[in-house]
Write a structure and sequence with these properties.
7-stranded antiparallel beta sheet, Immunoglobulin-like, alpha+beta, Rossmann fold, 4 domains, 52 strands
Length: about 775
C-alpha cells in the first residue's frame, strides 16, 4: 500500500499534497505548524510501506476537509482477496457511503460483503451486483439509520467493512497484463498437492510477553500443532536472555510427538530477562540449518518487528505483527493457516532475456496454497503476443515445470470506462514492487536471485536507499524515505499547488520578494467533479503563458516569420510531440511582422499511433489506420481505445490521449469579424500533463515540471526584477486572455512579461526550437 495523493480544502480553497524527501517534508510541516497555520503530513510508520500516519494541524477559525488516495496491491490469501475499510466516525455522517467496483478479467468465483457493525436493520443496505467479471458493492445508510437510537448523537457505525472475493484460476501459467510497455504476471497455478513442510516455532518468553500475550500464544500454538500433518517436521525454540530448544533436531509430526509438544507448550511461561538479538539469531540459524522455513510473529507495537522480519527472511519465511486484543489467538491461527500448505518450493519464473528488462524478484522459496506470486518488469520490444513464460519449481511428488505463451489480456477492453489505477497501472505496480524490494534489501538478508545479489556492504545498502528514494519521488509514493506534505501558503497567489472554486474571484495583485514554484493546478467544480488544469498555454499575443490561473503568471513572445514551425512539446519517452506553425496577424502582411500567431498545429503520439493535423479550417485525425476529417463548422466526437476527441462547433477541440495527456485547442475567429484582413488563429492549452515523463521539453513542455522564480516589484511602476535560473531579468506587468474557461470572451489574467523572446527564461535560444515540419 502507498499513499499517492492528498487534497485539502481549507476555507473553500483546495490544496494538493506534494511528495518530498522525508526530512524536507517534516521541516516544511513543522515550519507551518509553529506559525499556527493549517498543515498536514502523511508519512510511513515503520520501514515498510504497510502502515501510515497522518498528522494534522488546523489553524484557528478554519474549516478543513481532506481526501486521501492510496494504491494497494491486494494480497491473495486463502484463495481470496480482501478489501477492509475501518470505519469509526464516532458521530452520524450527513452523507455516508462506501462503494467498491471490482473488475477481474479471469472471472469472479464469488463476492462477499460484511461488516462487524451490521445489525438486522443495516444488513439490507449492503447492495451487491455481480456479473461474470464485475461486481459493484455499496453501503449507504441515512443519517437516522446510523444513530444508536432516534435523536441520539452516537452512531452504530463503528468497526470494519469487509469485502472478500475470489478469482477463477484456470491457467497454469497465470495471468499477464501489459500496458504501455510494462507487464505484470500473476502466478497462482490451480490443483496442486501440498508439499510436506519443515517449520520451527520460536516463542518469546521474556517479560514483554506477560499476561494475555503468553496465554494467547499458548492457546494458538496448541491449535496449530493439532493441524500438522504426519509428513511434516517441526521444532520449538523458546528464548529470553537465553535460548533453549524442545528437541535438538527436527521432529516428525506424529500423533505422539504432537501430543508431547502440546504438553511442552502448556509449560511455557514468561520469565523476564533481556533478549539478546545476536544470540537468538545465531542459535536459530544453527537449529534450522537451512532445512526449514522460519515464520516470526510479533505481539503489539512495541515488538522489534524489524529483527523478526529480517530473521524470518534469512530462513525462507515471513513475519507478521499480531495486534493485541481478544482475537489475537485467531490472528495467530489465521497466519498459520496461510502458510501451513506449501504447494511449490524454490519457484523460479523466467522470461526471455531479449524481451524483458528491469524485472522485480523472480525467485521465491515457496508458494502457499491460496496465495500468488506477482512479478513485474519492462518490455524491451512491442510484441506482447509472443510473450513467453517459463516456471520451474519443486512439487510434492515431482518437479514442477510449465512453459508457454502467456494469455495476454487487453485491459482497454476489460476496463473501457475506468481509468484503472491511474492509467499506467503496470508501470506503477512495477515501481511499487521495485521500491518495496529495494527497501527490504537495505537490511542484511540471504535474499538472492539471478537479478539481485546478496546485499551485504554498506555501499550496496546506500545505493538501494538512493534508488528507492529517487523512484519514490518520481512516482509520487509515500514510503519510509518520503512523506507527503500539505501546507497553506502565506497568500493564495503564492501557492505552488492551489486550486480555486470557480465561484470565487481571483486577485491580480502579487506579493513582493516571493519565491514561487509553478506546478499543475486543480479546479474543483461543484458536486465534487474534479477537472485538472495544468495551466500552460500558447495563445494570442503574448504567445506563451505559464500558470494562467495564478496571480503571478509568466508570459513571453516567440516571434518568427510566417511559415516558421516551432516545437512546443516533446516527450521522447512516449513519443508525444506538438509543433506549431506561425501565421501573420494579417493575411497580406509582409514577412517578418512582429505580430504573429499559431495558425496550424501538428500533434502526434508515437506509442499510441495517433496524429492530429489541426488548422483553422479543419482537423485531420489519423488513428488505427483510419483517416477522419472534421470541419470546425461541425460538432462531433471521436472515441476509440486510446483517443477521446470532442469538437464544439467553431469553438474548441478537446483531446484526451489515454494515460498520456489532455489538451484543448481554441479557434479564434469572431474577434476579427469586422476586420476581414485579420487571420484566424489557434490557441493550445494543456489540461493534464502529469503522465508525461520528467524529460518533457519544448517551448511549452519545459515548464510542465515547474520553475522557481522570485519577483521584486515597485508599487509605483509596472516594471519589476525577476530572479530565475541564476539570472536577473527585467519584466513588465502585462495582461493576457485565458480562453480555456471562457471560450468566447476569455478571462483577463495578469502576467509578468519577459522581453526578448523569453531569453533567460527558456532554455537556450528560440532558434533551437525551430523544426523542419509539423510531423
Amino acid at each position: 500500500m502507498s499513499v499517492t495523493a492528498q487534497l485539502w480544502e481549507i476555507n473553500g480553497r483546495v490544496y494538493v499534497g506534494e511528495v518530498k524527501e522525508k526530512e524536507k517534508a517534516k521541516q516544511q510541516y513543522e515550519k507551518a505548524t509553529s506559525a499556527g497555520k493549517t498543515a498536514g503530513l502523511v508519512k510511513a510508520a515503520g520501514r515498510k510501506m504497510e502502515k501510515f500516519s497522518v498528522s494534522v494541524n488546523i489553524a484557528a477559525n478554519s474549516t478543513v476537509a481532506f481526501v486521501l488516495t492510496y494504491e494497494e496491491l491486494l494480497q491473495r490469501k486463502m484463495g481470496q482477496y480482501e478489501i477492509l475499510t475501518q470505519v469509526t466516525p464516532e458521530l452520524p455522517v450527513q452523507e455516508f457511503q462506501i462503494v467498491a467496483d471490482i473488475y477481474e478479467a479471469q472471472g469472479l468465483a464469488f463476492v462477499e460483503a460484511s461488516a462487524t457493525f451490521l445489525t438486522n436493520e443495516l444488513l439490507p443496505l449492503v447492495k451487491k451486483t455481480v456479473t461474470d467479471t464485475r461486481a459493484h458493492v455499496s453501503f449507504s445508510p441515512t443519517l437516522e439509520q446510523q444513530r444508536k437510537c432516534p435523536g441520539c448523537e452516537g452512531t452504530i457505525i463503528n468497526g470494519d467493512f469487509i469485502i472478500k472475493y475470489g478469482v477463477k484460476q484456470e491457467q497454469s501459467l497465470g495471468e499477464v497484463q501489459i500496458v504501455n510497455g510494462y507487464f505484470v504476471h500473476f502466478f497462482a497455478p490451480p490443483h496442486l498437492p501440498r508439499v510436506p513442510k519443515n517449520v520451527v516455532f520460536v516463542i518469546d518468553r521474556s517479560g514483554s510477553m506477560n499476561g494475555m500475550k503468553m496465554q494467547q500464544t499458548r492457546d494458538a500454538l496448541q491449535a496449530i500443532l493439532k493441524d500438522l500433518h504426519e509428513e511434516d517436521h517441526f521444532a520449538l525454540v523458546v528464548f529470553d536472555s537465553t535460548v533453549s530448544q524442545w528437541r535438538n533436531s527436527l521432529t516428525k509430526a506424529t500423533k505422539k510427538n504432537v501430543s508431547q509438544a502440546i504438553n511442552y507448550v502448556k509449560t511455557i511461561k514468561d520469565r523476564g530477562g533481556v533478549s539478546d538479538i545476536k544470540v537468538i539469531q545465531k542459535d536459530v540459524q544453527s537449529a534450522i540449518g537451512g532445512n526449514m522455513s522460519l515464520f516470526c510473529l510479533g505481539f503489539g507495537n512495541d515488538v522489534d518487528y524489524s529483527f523478526l522480519d529480517v530473521m524470518s527472511r534469512q530462513n525462507k519465511g515471513l513475519a507478521r505483527r499480531i495486534f493485541t486484543g481478544s482475537d489475537a489467538t485467531l490472528q495467530l491461527q489465521g497466519f498459520y493457516d496461510e502458510v501451513s500448505s506449501p504447494l511449490l518450493l524454490d519457484v523460479d519464473l523466467r522470461y526471455p532475456e531479449n524481451t524483458v528488462d528491469l524485472l522485480t524478484k523472480t525467485q521465491y522459496s515457496q508458494l502457499f496454497n491460496g496465495s500468488e506470486i506477482v512479478v513485474s518488469g519492462q518490455l524491451t520490444n512491442n510484441d506482447p503476443e509472443n510473450f513467453l513464460v517459463e516456471v520451474f519449481a519443486k512439487g510434492a511428488e515431482h518437479d514442477f515445470q510449465v512453459r508457454g505463451k502467456a494469455r495476454v489480456l487487453d485491459t482497454d477492453v476489460i476496463y473501457p470506462e475506468k481509468d484503472y489505477i491511474f492509467g499506467d497501472f503496470s508501470e506503477r505496480l512495477w515501481a511499487y514492487l521495485t521500491i518495496q524490494q529495494l527497501l527490504e534489501n537495505r537490511f542484511p538478508t540471504q535474499f538472492v536471485n539471478r537479478h539481485h545479489s546478496d546485499v551485504g556492504t554498506q555501499q550496496e545498502k546506500d545505493r538501494n536507499s538512493a534508488k528507492a528514494l529517487e523512484m519514490s519521488l518520481r512516482y509520487g509514493f509515500v514510503t519510509p524515505l518520503t512523506s507527503m506534505v500539505v501546507t497553506k501558503p502565506e497568500s493564495d497567489r503564492s501557492s505552488p499547488l492551489l486550486a480555486d472554486k470557480l465561484t470565487e474571484s481571483k486577485t491580480a495583485a502579487t506579493g513582493r520578494g516571493k519565491k514561487e514554484t509553478q506546478q499543475p493546478l486543480l479546479i474543483v467544480y461543484a458536486f465534487a467533479i474534479i477537472r485538472v488544469i495544468d495551466g500552460f498555454l500558447v495563445d494570442g499575443d503574448p504567445h506563451f503563458m505559464i500558470e494562467p490561473d495564478r496571480g503571478d503568471s509568466l508570459c513571453f513572445n516567440i516571434n518568427g516569420n510566417p511559415g516558421t514551425i516551432f516545437n512546443l512539446v516533446t516527450d521522447a519517452k512516449s513519443g508525444f510531440i506538438v509543433n506549431g506553425e506561425i501565421v501573420g496577424k494579417k493575411k497580406d502582411a509582409p514577412g517578418g511582422n512582429s505580430n504573429n500567431y499559431i495558425g496550424r498545429l501538428g500533434i502526434s503520439h508515437k506509442k499510441l499511433g495517433v496524429r492530429l493535423d489541426v488548422s483553422t479550417q479543419d482537423i485531420s485525425v489519423f488513428h488505427d489506420g483510419k483517416h477522419i476529417k472534421l470541419l470546425w463548422s461541425d460538432t462531433a466526437s471521436v472515441k476509440s481505445t486510446n483517443l477521446d476527441l470532442r469538437l464544439v462547433k467553431n469553438c474548441s477541440l478537446t483531446v484526451t490521449l489515454k494515460h498520456a495527456v489532455k489538451f484543448e485547442v481554441i479557434k479564434h475567429s469572431k474577434v476579427w469579424k469586422r476586420q476581414h484582413k485579420h487571420q484566424e488563429y489557434l490557441g493550445f492549452y494543456t489540461l493534464d500533463s502529469h503522465h508525461l515523463s520528467a524529460s518533457v521539453h519544448g517551448l511549452l513542455g519545459q515548464f510542465y515540471r515547474g520553475i522557481e522564480f522570485e519577483v521584486t516589484e515597485s508599487l509605483q511602476s509596472p516594471d519589476a526584477i525577476m530572479y530565475v535560473k541564476g539570472q536577473t531579468l527585467n519584466v513588465t506587468r502585462h495582461w493576457q486572455k485565458d480562453f480555456s474557461q471562457q471560450v468566447i470572451d476569455g478571462k483577463v489574467m495578469p502576467c509578468w512579461f519577459v522581453n526578448n523572446n523569453g531569453t533567460g527564461l527558456i532554455d537556450g535560444k528560440p532558434l533551437d526550437y525551430i523544426v523542419s515540419g509539423l510531423f
